């Protein structure tokens, strides 16, 4: 019996309609950005060499996507332009993030012509989870047939190919998509508990499996474990001791279990709220130049806090050193700066969204912990312990019923920028050569809009 026969044997129309076991679908748009660019050009992504990247950022820029045709030639996804072998000819398409978001919304609307919003959860710009059990009964089709209907509808209306994972829970659906679908000619992978044990229990590398990163893989390797079957063979108490709370999720997934459902995901409210603002530079920045970036990023984030009427009670600063500086610091006998990424945090005296107070906090962290000869490649600001203005107003002297003109200024800036655009009102700091705000304000997710 081949892999496709396994799918048909376990997921037949009659057995699914009669079964009480829930079924989920994870549907993904294959090499989405590259497929959109090919569709707009009337090209076939399976026969066209095309990369989505911004060539103005230098040959070291990362490709946001490459076509399946280039993958077949051995080019790695998310590679850099200069990593593509010189013998391969290809077309470069500058990213258009706003366009991709519009196409993604159109495709979600296609899904919603088949299912109700309550049963659909967009996981990313190109991936959605769908609870499909009710629709198999409604349309009197098998899981494969229903998946093919969605695939055909997307292809017909957008010329983009979708691949599908189907499973008896969200985790199995995701793993079926990531690992099984690529081996099925119809682009539809399926997993239940039996197929999970057959195909995934002994699958390597573990990092291909949803939720398992390099850190977890390395930790498991130290315990002599390199498969999910190995996790299942270990004493439960040992896994919980080694991995803490994450150990419970690791054990559940190792057995192919998942308690989360789409309604529970939508109803979830995180206990800890934070806002993050980060960027990776296209060159090494000096110690002094980073002050300009800190100022710009704090300004943008403080206005975001004002817009949402929330305050931060803590901040943390992540600094990523350049490769050159990291190699220099490897010889540091104290070992303090042998890692490239460093994080420093601080509690604020009172919750605030005031730009000057927030910048002062980040400036203190930066000056206290970063060597003056450092060269920087990455900066990330985190605003933690967020609270609504109504809940923390009593702790803030600036939150009175009659705010001064100075206190009204941030909201005025927010209103002006909302109406005319973020670059309509900028600080003079953003005119410095090292400043990035004017460029980033024209981007979405750090890429061309």
Summarize the topology:
Blueprint: H1 3-10, H2 13-18, E1 24-29, H3 32-41, E2 50-52, E3 65-66, H4 68-72, E4 91-93, H5 97-112, E5 120-124, E6 127-131, H6 133-139, H7 143-158, E7 162-167, H8 170-180, E8 188-191, H9 193-199, H10 214-222, H11 228-233, H12 236-243, H13 245-254, H14 262-267, E9 274-286, H15 289-308, E10 310-321, H16 323-329, E11 341-352, H17 355-369, E12 375-384, E13 387-388, H18 389-392, H19 405-420, H20 437-440, E14 443-444, E15 447-448
Helix pairs in contact: 5-7, 12-13, 15-17, 15-19
Summarize the structure in short.
With 449 residues, the protein is an alpha+beta fold. The protein has 20 helices and 15 strands. The radius of gyration is 25 Å and the shape is globular.
How would you portray this structure in words?
- The chain is α+β, with helices and mostly antiparallel strands.
- It has three domains: 1-200, Reverse transcriptase/Diguanylate cyclase domain (Alpha-Beta Plaits, 2-Layer Sandwich); 206-264, 5' to 3' exonuclease, C-terminal subdomain (DNA polymerase, domain 1, Orthogonal Bundle); 275-444, 2-Layer Sandwich (Dna Ligase, domain 1), CATH 3.30.1490.
- It has 20 helices and 15 strands.
- It has helices at residues 3-10, 13-18, 32-41, 68-72, 97-112, 133-139, 143-158, 170-180, 193-199, 214-222, 228-233, 236-243, 245-254, 262-267, 289-308, 323-329, 355-369, 389-392, 405-420, 437-440; strands at residues 24-29, 50-52, 65-66, 91-93, 120-124, 127-131, 162-167, 188-191, 274-286, 310-321, 341-352, 375-384, 387-388, 443-444, 447-448.
- The strands form four sheets. Strands 5-6-1-7-8 form a five-stranded mixed sheet. Strands 9, 10, 11, 12 and 13 form a five-stranded antiparallel sheet that branches. A three-stranded mixed sheet has the order 3-2-4.
- Strand 14 (443-444) and strand 15 (447-448) form a beta hairpin.
- Helix 5 (97-112) packs across helix 7 (143-158) and helix 15 crosses helix 19.
- It is globular.
- The two termini are 48 Å apart.
- Residues 398-403 have low confidence and may be disordered.
């Amino acid at each position: 019996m081949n892999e496709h026969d396994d799918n048909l044997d376990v997921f037949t129309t009659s057995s699914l309609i009669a079964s009480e076991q829930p079924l989920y679908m994870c549907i993904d748009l294959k090499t989405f950005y590259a497929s959109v660019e090919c569709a707009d050009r009337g090209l076939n992504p399976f026969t066209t060499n095309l990369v989505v990247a911004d060539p103005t950022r230098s040959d070291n820029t990362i490709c946001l996507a490459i076509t399946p045709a280039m993958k077949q030639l051995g080019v790695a996804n998310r590679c850099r332009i200069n990593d593509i072998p010189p013998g391969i000819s290809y077309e470069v398409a500058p990213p258009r993030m706003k366009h991709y978001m519009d196409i993604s919304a159109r495709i979600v609307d296609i899904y919603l012509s088949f299912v109700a919003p309550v049963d659909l959860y967009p996981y990313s710009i190109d991936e959605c989870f769908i609870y499909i059990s009710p629709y198999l009964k409604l349309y009197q089709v098998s899981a494969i047939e229903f998946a093919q209907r969605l695939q055909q509808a997307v292809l017909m209306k957008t010329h983009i190919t979708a691949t599908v994972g189907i499973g008896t829970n969200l985790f199995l659906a995701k793993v079926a998509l990531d690992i099984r679908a690529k081996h099925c000619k119809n682009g539809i992978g399926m997993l239940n508990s039996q197929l999970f044990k057959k195909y995934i229990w002994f699958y390597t590398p573990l990092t291909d499996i949803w939720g398992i990163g390099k850190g977890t893989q390395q930790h498991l390797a130290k315990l002599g474990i390199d498969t999910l079957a190995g996790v299942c063979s270990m004493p439960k108490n040992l896994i919980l001791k080694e991995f803490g709370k994450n150990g419970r999720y690791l054990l559940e997934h190792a057995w192919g279990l998942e308690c989360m459902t789409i309604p529970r995901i939508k109803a979830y409210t995180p206990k800890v709220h934070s806002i993050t603002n980060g960027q990776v530079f296209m060159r090494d920045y000096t110690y002094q130049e980073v002050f300009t970036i800190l100022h710009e990023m704090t300004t943008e984030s403080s206005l975001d806090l004002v817009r949402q009427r929330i305050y931060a009670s803590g901040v943390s600063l992540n600094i990523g050193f350049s490769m050159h500086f990291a190699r220099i610091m490897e010889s540091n006998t104290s070992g303090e700066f042998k890692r490239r990424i460093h994080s420093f945090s601080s509690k604020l005296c009172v919750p605030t969204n005031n730009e000057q107070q927030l910048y002062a906090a980040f400036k203190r962290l930066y000056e206290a912990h970063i060597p003056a000869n450092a060269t920087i490649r990455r900066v990330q600001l985190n605003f933690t312990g967020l609270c609504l203005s109504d809940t923390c107003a009593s702790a803030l002297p600036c939150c009175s019923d009659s705010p001064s003109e100075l206190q009204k200024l941030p909201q005025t800036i927010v209103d002006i920028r909302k109406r005319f655009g973020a670059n309509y009102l900028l600080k003079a700091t953003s005119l410095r050569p090292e400043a990035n705000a004017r460029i980033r304000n024209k981007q979405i997710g750090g890429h061309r809009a």
